[in-house]
Amino acid sequence: MRKKIVAGNWKMNKTFTEAEELLAYIAESIEKETPCEVVTCPPAVYLEMATDFAMESNLLVGAQNVSQFEGGAYTGEISAAMLDSIDVNYCIVGHSERRKYFHETDEMLAQKVNILLDYGINPIFCCGEQLGEREKEIHFGVVRSQLQNGLFHLNESEFHNVVIAYEPVWAIGTGRTASPEQAQEMHGFIRSLVTEKYGKKVADDTTILYGGSCNAGNARELFSQEDVDGGLIGGASLKGEEFIKIVNSF
Ligand code: PGA
Hints:
Elements: E1 5-9, H1 16-29, E2 37-41, H2 47-55, E3 60-63, H3 80-85, E4 90-93, H4 96-101, H5 106-118, E5 122-127, H6 131-135, H7 139-150, H8 156-159, E6 163-166, H9 180-198, H10 200-205, E7 208-211, H11 219-223, E8 230-233, H12 240-247
Parallel strand pairs: 1-2, 1-8, 2-3, 3-4, 4-5, 5-6, 6-7, 7-8
Helix pairs in contact: 1-2, 1-12
Bound molecules: 2-phosphoglycolic acid.
2-phosphoglycolic acid binds at residues 9, 167, 172-173, 211-214, 232-236.
């Protein structure tokens, strides 16, 4: 079944005490029923703290990255087995900041998706075009090739566990959100690609999140679009009250 999800991507923010405060606030605020799954993706050093909160609440936990390697001599890396061993539920893959600053290629992303699925962790696979690509009107082709190269090697039962996040790079951290129409247009396109590849039933069940300057002021309109199933929230996930307002925007 298609899930509604709001996931907070904290990126490289928060000290230990700040992380503890924010996690406690979120966990407490979602004690009662929420209209969607709530996922928090803190920096890796706070993942275990987050999974401790998750044990006592409805919170789900996501990592921001995973190594494409199984384990061994890869200094600084964190493996899917490690994430699994502390009960992490989701992992962001292919965020545009990882593609840009850490030179992650489609091939590496496909390996990361595979290893996560091997360990039962759900990938949140990011795709999205840069501003110049939208201006050249090649944004649909860019997103198509990101999905084809990073995800569409999966078989149907594997694909079932994947969440897609459409994040136009020009909207990330810029305050310039995609309009609800632009988001819907791309989300509808992504769902049509999933239909072509895996059939209508799988496509109807696929969760497609929007990310890029989504906040408490614009979430409701974005989430009301037919093919927008929630959000991957950066800056606005760092403030507890605002994040909870977004969670309640369905
Ligand atoms: P933003 O980031 O909400 O700060 O634009 C979204 C993301 O990068 O996931």
